[in-house]
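Archive entry. Fields below.
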Amino acid sequence: MRNLNQDTITQAVIARFAQTPDPRLKEIMTSLVQHLHAFAREVKLTEAEWMAGIQFLTATGQKCDDKRQEFILLSDTLGLSMLTVAMNNDKPAGCTEATVFGPFHVEGAPHYEHGDDVANGASGEPCLVRGRVLGADGKPVANAEVEVWQADADGNYDVQYEGLEHHRARGILHSGADGRFHFKTIVAEAYPIPVDGPVGDMLRATNRHPWRPAHLHFMIKAPGYETLITHVFRDGDPYLDSDAVFGVRQSLVADWVKQADGSYMLDFDFVLNPAHVAAK
Amino acid sequence: MRNLNQDTITQAVIARFAQTPDPRLKEIMTSLVQHLHAFAREVKLTEAEWMAGIQFLTATGQKCDDKRQEFILLSDTLGLSMLTVAMNNDKPAGCTEATVFGPFHVEGAPHYEHGDDVANGASGEPCLVRGRVLGADGKPVANAEVEVWQADADGNYDVQYEGLEHHRARGILHSGADGRFHFKTIVAEAYPIPVDGPVGDMLRATNRHPWRPAHLHFMIKAPGYETLITHVFRDGDPYLDSDAVFGVRQSLVADWVKQADGSYMLDFDFVLNPAHVAAK
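PREDICTED_STRUCTURE:
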């Protein structure tokens, strides 16, 4: 192993992973090395390009903190997140489809009761959201944990405001015995993903727009069911066909209906996949 | 583009790069997306594994500072660095081969005169290094910039010592009119790459040792020649056949000869590749 060249090095690196105790980790590292090397070989990566890549990845890591996850944003904009979601959430017909988690979920969202205003001061037009959590058999799922988060009218999540001490437009409720929940919030609006970091540099260099169609994030957990991580997208949004993170599914597009008093109403039911079906 | 699935998303992401103005960047992003998705698809990456990958890359970026480059270390240990070096340094026979740059080069190394001790207080057995910088025609290259750096007897580079204010075992000299240079330093010893970060976690999880065979780093620059980035490796080292970063080339292995007074002597000539040959 003293004269590795561009033709022999890949097998030499793979051989070095031969003693990996966990067979799954061995499988992943072997595949990763093969594809990473195949990429470098296919484009005949130059040393300057290699260094640019090192610097890009370093800057991406250093942009991350407890409120910003630039590597998730990179994965999202390269379609890796949606590919992973699609591969792992091949649910039976009738179940609500999953989409990307996104970088703006945080732990510790406040708990709310039905009818509360989760906006909690976030700017935007008033909106009532109501729906049901159901099983695939159509029966209500009681006491499901329904976590919701969204951007405000300026396109920002609460965690994007420096020094904001309380959560806005983010909260956790529980479905009632009839599977129903409802809460007040603000209308979802289209917004650009953050472009003040390396991902923004990448989008500008490749002439890609940073916009996401208007959406409301949901994560729904209930015993006996797969956790559902999804969005509801707002019908009519101009970015539904060019989401910067490739997350739109037609079955998740819904109408925010304008009411007589000028406020909006979203009505959406979520159908959970039983956990035993997921365990393949 | 509203119903992307695991079979259609890759082409949709590639299409999004269609308006990239720089054709080389477009080529690189297209290849990167294909290989990144092929990897995820081949191993059927789970969402938990995806998140573990996000966290690993984030931690790798956050381990970097002005003295530590964990992404270079990751690239080195995955063989990507050596693959890139090999693809880009296919020199004519007779020229000194290149090897990995490594993560411990820093700007601003002190300048020394012939005969000076570049160790500058670094621990280790005394050693004289001498050699010549030559062109492929065998003629001396005068006034070439010869930068050298190495670890000390404890296996650490100067930048690995917290709070050390001056450089040790690192310096820049210039070849004389006859192409010759010589300096005092310490004997190169085998050492483990730093394992207190994510790369160390990866090596432990895969049962890989972190050792590099003893070596002295050189970067040699002269007008009209390709910059040579290489090492000289110490013959007899037990890690020559299992370098943690895959950098060993037999032509770079040399003898550190013990002298009558107990000190060591390394004699090594470097043959530079004319720059016009490199410009393919």
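CURATOR_NOTE: Chain B has a mean pLDDT of 95.
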